[in-house]
Amino acid sequence: MDGVQWVALVVVVVATVVGVGIFARGATTITRTVRIGRSAPGRWRPVGPRARRLVAEVLGHGRFQHRPVVKAAHWVVMLSFPLLFLTLLTGYGQVIDPGFTLPLVGHLWPLEWAIEAFAWASLLGIAALFVLRLRLRPRGEDARRSRFFGSNQAQAYFVEATVAAVVLAVIALRALEHARGGQSAWHFPLTAWLAPSWDQGTLETAIVVVATVKIVVSMSWFVVVGLQPTMGVAWHRFLAIVNVYARREPDGRPALGPLQPITTQHGPVDLEGLEDLPDDARLGVGAIEDFTWKGLLDFSTCTECGRCQDQCPAWATDKPLSPKLVTLALRDHAAATAPYLRAADESHAGLDLIGGGVIDPDALWACTTCGACVQQCPVDIEHVDAIVDMRRYQVLMESAFPKELGGAFTKLERQGNPWGLPARARLDWAKGLEFDVPVVGADVESADDVEYLFWVGCAGAYEDRAKRTTRAVAELLHTAGVSFAVLGDGEGCTGDPARRAGNELLYQMLASANVEVLNEVGARRIVVTCAHCFNTIAREYPQLGGRYEVLHHTELLNTLVADGRLRPAPQEATSVTYHDPCYLGRHNEIYSPPRELLDSLPGVTVAEMPRNREQSFCCGAGGARMWMEESIGTRISTTRATEAIGTGADVVATACPFCTVMLSDGVAAAAAATDVVGVPEVTDIALLLLDRVREAETSA
User: Fold this and answer.
1) DSSP H helical segments within 344-429, as ranges?
2) What are the 4Fe-4S ferredoxin-type domain coordinates in residue numbering (predicted)?
3) Which of 13, 144, 261, 659 could lock 654 by a disulfide, CB 3.0 to 4.6 Å apart?
């Protein structure tokens, strides 16, 4: 070994000891922070399905849909990390012996080809990501529109620069290795052309220097990252593996649909066990230590990519809520307070999240729980669960919630519906129909006596626009010869508004009563017109022992048309744009049946809005926002209605009564603001079908 090698060896050893040591300390800090959280049962098993989904998610990059360039670039950079790690190990040997190669695999040509291919691909990939970040960087008055607004850009550029430096070093080393001799160009398919014509001594010195630089750059990355445990843009490459594995749904679905039952530090809570709770029990999340360890891991895993922020309807309409910024605030707060909480023996000494200024109350209550953030997140962060858990604490422990919700809660408690109307009026929608609507317990003994129990829902029973949909569905079922019955005044609110607003105990009271009724009448197959009722009965009632086959009315009607039991007649050409309800589409992945039903209507042409299916924009009613004033920024419904008007469609088709109400108001507001003439009609798909079925019957 010459003098250069001795100096290089000392530098490499010191850099490695410092780098690995500091990185290990950072990893320990994150682990200790995550461990202050509550338990999260069921996150490790079943091992097989979780492991398979993890591999599929990592290799398939399924959460990068609609972003092909980013997907390809991130994919090669991600896979180059473990593959090019072999070149890091080789570099340590090259500091001592420039001709060093790894035993057994050092001259294995398939591995050498893969290393060179991924090195070049990673260089191109990281360049593409760097350019993309520059193009999308926050700037001027439009800074808020960038998905990187609020992200730490300097950290991201550092990570990208490190990757670029490492892959350039790999490429340079491969070229120098070929120039030094010993292997044919076959082993250097993509770097042989770069080989310099230097003498042997210069080549060996260059190999030592480049290998040292490569190691020092890598260890510098370890030092910077280790000193900043909140540097999610770097740590996610390790934490995302655990976070994706421990996702809420083992089958790989995003954490949407049902909310998780409420828990305390002592375990799950239901109505029966409420009185037995100890005095120190805390319902929901009021301090950082009230989150589960998975919630805290979520925050540490955030890459700050801003995809959630880019899709959030609240942020897009100038509300203070950004799912990314909420996540980052919780991450930084957890990192800052975790040492003190551990020192206090986890005695709940943490700062109150809402009252303490960590999370803006306006941001907390701006969420529509549409799930766009969860659906877009590439590392499976469960934003909606975190927000609802914080709402639960505010409602159940602090009685701190928007004043409009107080009235809704009271109406739900006293009348069993958020409109506050009497149960005896639940069948008023059926008055004037040319056929009788049977009621379970009065006209039929049980739900087993009919094909379907028709769950009308509160909107379908009390709201005028929704009642038209209810009547239409009933008439269509009658026309198709489908036997059905309703519960009449035996039906109560499913509890969706209460649960999304954080009033979990009120939800359990309403839901338990409904499950008891449904089980008593022998309900097996249920059809609903409300996307929120659909989600609650199909996905949440199983938590309370209510398991039923639940169909949305667009699914059933689509089947009836396909089977020829409903025959729509041609009408004049009509352009229709369809709005995906969040709780039907994104939460339950029902996108095709409504569109197939529209396609089956003669004369109807579907014009999609720019944001549709998984990327559909919310109407603004979810998360109990239907019952709250929208006084900050632009109304979400107006923004969505403007998109609908922009398609030039004659009709905006909906499949949820909440969407119908919100978009009807939104279209009116958007038209008034822009002086548009001939605004589209907002109506449920069932009404479009009914018009054509009636015409077919008249023609016959």
Assistant:
1) 361-366, 372-376, 383-396, 403-415
2) 293-322, 355-387
3) 659
- Confirm if 394 and 364 have CB atoms less than 8 A apart: yes
Alpha-carbon dihedral sign for residues 251, 257, 263, 268: negative
List Cβ neighbours of 242 (8 Å cut-off, separation of 6 or more): 297
DSSP 490: G
Residue 187 CB contacts under 8 Å (≥ 6 apart), including other chains: 107, 109, 112, 178
Name beta bridge partners: 268. Answer: 263
Assigned architecture for domain 411-560: 3-Layer(aba) Sandwich (3.40)
Neighbouring residues of 377: CB distance < 8 A, sequence distance ≥ 6: 63, 254, 307, 308, 383
| Amino acid 279: pLDDT | 77
Q: Which two tokens stand for residue 16?
A: 């490695």
Q: What percent of the chain has pLDDT over 90?
A: 79
Whole-prediction pTM: 0.92
How many other CB atoms sit within 10 Å of the CB of residue 143? 12
Contact 338, 33 (CB under 8 A): yes
The size of the chain, in residues, is: 700
Task: Please give the Cα distance from 271 to 268 (Å, whole number).
Answer: 10
> What pLDDT does 401 receive?
95
Q: What span, in angstroms and rounded, lies between the C-alpha atoms of 156 and 131?
A: 12
Residue 349 reports pLDDT greater than 60? no
Burial of 444 (0-12, 13-18, 19+ CB in 10 A): middle
Q: Calculate mean pLDDT across residues 145-155.
A: 94
Q: Which three-class secondary structure state does DSSP give residue 452?
A: strand
Domain 3-137+149-231 falls under CATH 1.20.120:
no
Question: Which of residues 441 and 466 earns the better pLDDT score?
Answer: 466
User: What CA–CA distance (Å, rounded) separates 221 from 167?
Assistant: 14
Q: Are 334 and 299 in contact (CB under 8 A)?
A: yes
Q: Where are the beta strands (DSSP E) in 241-295?
A: 263-264, 267-268
Average pLDDT in the 536-559 region?
97
Checking if the pLDDT of 3 tops 80, the result is: yes
Residues 6+ apart with CB under 8 A from 57: 63, 244, 252
Tokens 């029973």 belong to residue: 461
Cα separations in angstroms, 516 against 133, 425, 523 = 54, 22, 10
- The runs of H, that is alpha helices, within 61-108 are 68-96
Sign of CA dihedral 430, 431, 436, 441: positive
β-sheet with 574-578: strand ranges across = 604-606, 574-578, 651-654, 681-684
Domain chopping of the chain, boundaries: 3-137+149-231, 254-269+285-400, 411-560, 568-699
Q: Using an 8 Å Cβ cutoff, are 522 and 451 in contact?
A: no
The pLDDT value given to residue 58? 87
Tokens of 199: 């003498």
Residue 346 is predicted with a pLDDT of: 47
Same fold, 3-137+149-231 and 411-560: no
Strand residue runs (E) in 383-524: 452-455, 484-485
CATH code that applies to domain 254-269+285-400:
1.10.1060
More confident residue, 24 or 342: 24
Q: Quick count: other Cβ atoms within 10 Å of Cβ 569?
A: 17
| Of 650, 681, 653, 648, residue with least CA distance to 667 | 681
pLDDT digits (tens, 9 = 90+) for 467-482: 999 999 999 999 999 9
Confidence of residue 233 (pLDDT cuts 50, 70, 90): very high
CATH fold, domain 568-699, is: Rossmann fold (3.40.50)
Q: What CA–CA distance (Å, rounded) separates 393 from 420?
A: 25
Q: Cα(82)–Cα(97) distance, rounded to whole angstroms?
A: 23
Which residues are within 8 A (CB) of 464 and not within 5 positions of it... i.e. 6 or more apart? Answer: none
